[in-house]
Write a structure and sequence with these properties.
The complex is a heterodimer. Chain A contains twelve helices and one strand; from the N terminus they run αβααααααααααα. Chain A is mainly α. Chain A has one domain. In chain A, helix 2 runs antiparallel to helix 5. In chain A, about 50% of the residues are buried. Chain B folds into two domains: about 210 residues, Rossmann fold (3-Layer(aba) Sandwich), CATH 3.40.50.300; about 90 residues, 2-Layer Sandwich (Alpha-Beta Plaits), CATH 3.30.70.260. Helix content of chain B is about 35%, strand content about 30%. In chain B, the strands form three sheets. Chain B has a six-stranded mixed beta sheet with strand order 5-7-8-3-9-10, with helices on both faces. Chain B starts with a strand and ends with a helix. Chains A and B meet through helix 1, strand 1, helix 2 and helix 6 of A and helix 2, helix 3 and strand 6 of B.
Amino acid sequence: MSATMQSSRTAVRARPLPLLRRQLAETWRGLIGWSLGLAGVVGMYLPLYSTIGGNPEFLAIIESLPPELVAALSYDQITTGAGYTQGTVHGLIGFVLVTIAAVGWGSSIIAGDEERGTLELVLAHGVGRTQVVLERFAAIALKLIALAVLLGLMVLGLNEPAALELSLEGIVAGSMALLGVGLLTAAVGTMTGAIIGRRSIAVGAAAGVAVLGYALNALGNQNPDLEWMHVLSPYFWAYGAAPLADGFDPLMGLLYAVSAVALTVAVIAFRRRDVAV
Amino acid sequence: MTPVIETRALTKRYGRRTALHGIDLTIEPGRVFGVIGPTGAGKTTTMRVLLDIIRATSGDVRVLGHDPRTGGPALRRRIGYLPGELALAGRATARSLLHHYAELNGGIEHGRIDELADRLGLELGRPVRSLSKGNKQKVGLVQAFAHRPDLLVLDEPTSGLDPLVQQEFLTMVREAREAGQTVFLSSHVISEIQQAADDVAVLRSGRIVDVSTVERLRAAARRSVRITVRADDRDALLARLSSVSRLDDVTVTEVDGTAMVHGMLGDGVAPFVAAVAASDLLDLVVQEPDLESAVLGFYGPSAEQEEQS
């Protein structure tokens, strides 16, 4: 009865990926904000390379700093364009911005929606739970890709004016490393939300992985006895092989592989449990 | 005919707490089936199991012939659901949200959303987060009815609606039934069920206490009666009333030389009217049967006391 009526004069048509499009439509304003922030950071720091990174007085300051601090911040490489870009943007403020965005996005798509009570009605319609997790995470991935592309284009545009001497491969690899960090963080937030359904716990888990990864990397930099910590650090997986200087390295692939595993766990867990109880 | 909803020994436990103790429900196609019970009786839990939002601990569930756990999106497209705790958030307009839900259900016919919104008096252009409780409820009703589902599952559907809109809702329910749709609705207000439903299940503490038709429930219900006579005639009237079976809770109030006698009548009207006819009545009021108290009777005396306290 209803089927024939619908097919004869359909006004609202079913189009592919409804949840992904919805997610983007609801959150694009936030993406604009993050993009402006990232562009501001890149546009502010990179042009200063010639006056900071290559400046002898500044180098003297760095030499006077405790070596542990210099190692933690990776400022030992700051005399090169790649080291400077890594130390200021990809490894520091860009990393922080992307991490915060990914924590918020990852924890909101399942746990946040569930806590505010709006997930129940979505699931009551013609969607599957796997579809909900995957489409919404795909929306996050697209937004992170947008940030990574923006970062890459900004670095490329400033490469010559700021005399950074980065290769194209290095620029792409640098963006891919930060993208991988963002995806992993968002995937951990999504996974935790899919398992537990509590936004605060999802935020804690995602932010915890990012902070712990940074800390393990910084400790691992201190001396050879602590280098084993690098193995556990997503931050090291991203930047340990110096992507801006040396281009792609398989190590970076760990970020993407672990993200995929986390997402798989998210789907399996979310399919099994009660929602909004 | 295959029932639209069939549950056998449906049980739901949360840790040590049991929300549903073996619910057996059979709802035939084309019926409007109401479930009534106090908050926490298990109405919402039962409905969420039907929609596969939560999963039964044990027991069998069939909705439109399918297990909700395996029916997937195809099954849920045939159901319209209004949650009891409807939450709508975000800066999206009501129209865009309703389009989104329609899309998830595989699309709907032209003008359907506008038609329903008009009927309920809902402005589609406003952001959902700025809508009042009543208007949010209208959005919830529109999304449940829009795709003309075979089954409507409505949890406290008239909550927050003003009386005129409630009437429109009842009309929509009647139309749905005439179109062959089945309606499963819940309420803690009996009058809502009384007006809308053919069948009633009374749910209490996760158990079905009774399944009945509204007519049978009405027959079992008590009526409130009020007789006004001159104060002088009071004792004679009370003497006659004492012969009326199942007239309880009699109270007398005297004001300015008149006596007002209140009571609850549990049996037929005829013997009562015959008994009071001999008195010189100033006024006589026999109210409609009070289903509330009939249902409270099913809840049992403890529930009645809780209600009163």
